């Protein structure tokens, strides 16, 4: 048998609730004009219990929404995507010209003078701790991979994106999870003017380093597809970036379609 304890017997949750009610009642009763004493004791106790449960649930919801960190794309729930939730974080790496890795930094504690939460620095520490973001609405030249040749301007597009977002704080509106498990998001970079942001996808298209993505599950944020296409047309007209030698080159969409057809023909 377990050893005998000299501690007083453990109080039930009902005893604790009654005792808490008495404290709250005695504190509130003198301060209100309405006589709380007219309510039945069971009703007042029920209100207290429901209020405590409600406060606990609200606290849990606030923790999940504003404090709990999302480690990676697998941890993003369908509900969060469906609600098009905004998240903020720091871009830790840019491996391709139209996607990057985001370290989610919710709530406070990430900046001085209240800095008590820190972003890992090493590749080992960051493993499985970043969200793979695919930029919504933008399609950049493809780099060499899986035996496929790189598109012209792939390196320049990658360099542009790295210079624009790497190690910077950014907001992302999650809108979709693609077939590769990446989170398709509208990325917004804060400017020096408070509450003003730049849409990274649009800025990349404006600079001539990406085309408008028009394939399946395309999303464009509040600006809409027409705005994206208008900015692409301006970049082409101005011969910016990948359009410097004209507009007849192979687009990223055409490149992927060509390679998909070649793969299918093999078998």
Topology:
Blueprint: H1 13-28, H2 41-67, H3 78-82, E1 86-96, E2 99-104, H4 123-126, E3 131-135, E4 138-139, H5 154-165, E5 169-177, E6 183-190, E7 197-199, H6 200-206, E8 211-212, H7 225-237, H8 252-266
Parallel strand pairs: 3-6
Antiparallel strand pairs: 1-2, 1-5, 2-3, 4-8, 5-6, 6-7
Task: Give structural notes.
The protein has 267 residues and is of the alpha+beta class. The chain has 2 domains: 13-57, no CATH class; 73-266, OB fold (Dihydrolipoamide Acetyltransferase, E2P), CATH 2.40.50. 37% of the residues lie in helices and 17% in strands. The chain has 8 helices and 8 strands; from the N terminus they run αααββαββαβββαβαα. The strands form 2 sheets. A 5-stranded mixed barrel has the order 1-2-3-6-5. It has a two-stranded antiparallel ribbon with strand order 4-8. Strand 6 (183-190) and strand 7 (197-199) form a beta hairpin. It is elongated. The N and C termini lie far apart (71 Å). Residues 1-10 and 28-34 have low confidence and may be disordered. It comes from Serendipita vermifera MAFF 305830.
Corresponding CATH architecture of the largest domain: Beta Barrel
State the shape. Answer: elongated
Count of the domains: 2
Gap from first CA to last CA: 71 Å
Q: Report low-confidence residues grouped into runs of 5 or more.
A: 1-10, 28-34
Number of strands: 8
In terms of DSSP E residues, the strand content is 15-25%
How many individual helices?
8
**Coarse structural class:** alpha+beta
Order of helices and strands: HHHEEHEEHEEEHEHH
